[in-house]
Amino acid sequence: MKKQALQSAILSATLFGISPVACKAIVGEMSPALLAGLLYLGSGLGLTGVVAHQGTQVRQTLQGLSLRQKAILAGTILSGGVAAPLFLAYGIRHGTASEVSLLLNFETVATTLLAWMIFHENIGARVWIGKFLIVGASIVVVSTNGGLLQVSIPGLSVLAACLLWGVDNNLTRELETIPAPLLASLKGWSAGLFNILLSLVLFQAQATLVQISGALLIGALSYGASLVLFIQALREIGSARTSTWFASGPFIGTVLSVILLGERPSGEYWAAALVMLAGMFFLYGEIHRHVHRHEATAHSHPHVHDEHHLHEHVDGKEEAKHEHYHEHEPLTHAHVHWPDIHHRHGH
Prior knowledge:
Number of helices: 13
Order of helices and strands: HHHHHHHHEEHHHHHEEEE
């Protein structure tokens, strides 16, 4: 497992994991659309300075996008930035923070299934067992209430958000030429402005200055910074594995909901949490190795001079991580690897 990608996924999960509790504390009477809009607008605002600093690179990147990439970018914004936050905000508004936090683990299941079905990403037995455990636990959470069979509409809304984020995650992996801060900023501004406009047109938007400021701050950290870290991990270890490590975040939200909000989930809830936690541990120790061939390609992305980047520099960048346009010669070899941008093959 690539250490830096693992750290990025866990830090991303931590930042996102605190968001349900933080949002529950400030949501008040805000409509789901307004809350979703403010969260994503905060993400866009928080990353604007980073993107502005890369002005020339940003213009070149946007001008160089193909029609296919533009369509995929629109898909990530619509699925992950517009629709998913609305469903999540409804769940936060009408459900409990502990319920929302735990059910966010379903995103890893949706992401993995789509990565396997559409992109043929290799999924080992350990990962599948973990996903089945998470699905079973999710069913328990949305169908029981204090020992009674009762379907939770807010819970189903969170599951819908996770499914849409699964679509978003798998589309995002196809946008490897767009720097992560730029991609997250575009999604933040587009989704934020759309949802705020929607709340003004269709709902009675009510929020205090404290609530607005709080939502923007949460968005900058839990959606902006978290998304940048998530994209970086996504490009290194693939959709399925990044989303599985990302599943550590909801447990942080669960603990905070009990400590800070005084929520007291039922015994069934804690049993489901333990099952989900067991599902995560099945990822440990997974190794994927086989002979594979890299076809000739040319692209630009951050890299170091490993066995996939055998080119030279005259400016002394060989040792440090750097980014530039480079070409790959055909290469056939075997090594332990993950579905990063150089290993998009299926089985």
